[in-house]
Structures are given as C-alpha cells and as structure tokens.
Design a protein that fits this description.
about 90 residues; 434 Repressor (Amino-terminal Domain); 5 helices
Length: about 90
C-alpha cells in the first residue's frame, strides 16, 4: 500500500529545502485554517449549518476552511458568531 499524505509530506520536508521553506512561510495560514475548522467542530456543526447561520453558502465556508481565500474581518466575525466563538487578533514581535 502507498504512503499516507502525512508520510509524503514529512518526506518532502526532509528532502526538499524549497518545499520546507515554502511550508514554513505558509504555516500561519495553515494555523488559521486549523482554527476555523476547530471552532466549527467544537460547535458540533457542519459547513452547511455554519453557512446558514452566516447567511452564506456551504461552498463559501469550504473555501474559508481550505485557505483558498483570506476572509474579511466581518466574515471572520460572522463565522465566529455562527460557531459560538470569538475573534481574537494579536500582533506579536517577530
């Protein structure tokens, strides 16, 4: 049987410096997406249910959760409200 996606990912991180560098650059985006999904799962909701509370479509929620689009603050607030979460933004020293 073939390697899992996680195994392939780890292998690429070890073998390809360019891949590893680009992945590191995108880590904040990946973390953001994980937070969105975590909030929805914690609320016990489907993408469709979140979309209905937000007044949007399931495909819009899917795009937010895939990292395909960076939401506006207003959209992020709607997502948080729909999932019973709150938005917290911080800027930290680099």
């Amino acid at each position: 049987m073939g390697k899992s996606m996680e195994e392939k990912h780890r292998e690429m991180l070890d073998r390809d410096p360019g891949y590893a560098l680009e992945y590191a650059r995108m880590e904040e985006e990946f973390q953001f997406v994980r937070e969105l999904i975590r909030a929805r799962v914690r609320a016990g909701m489907t993408q469709q249910q979140v979309a209905e509370k937000m007044g949007t479509t399931q495909s819009t929620v899917a795009r937010l959760e895939s990292g395909g689009t960076m939401p506006s603050l207003r959209s992020l607030q709607k997502f948080a409200w729909a999932t019973g979460s709150k938005v917290k933004i911080s800027l930290e020293d680099g």
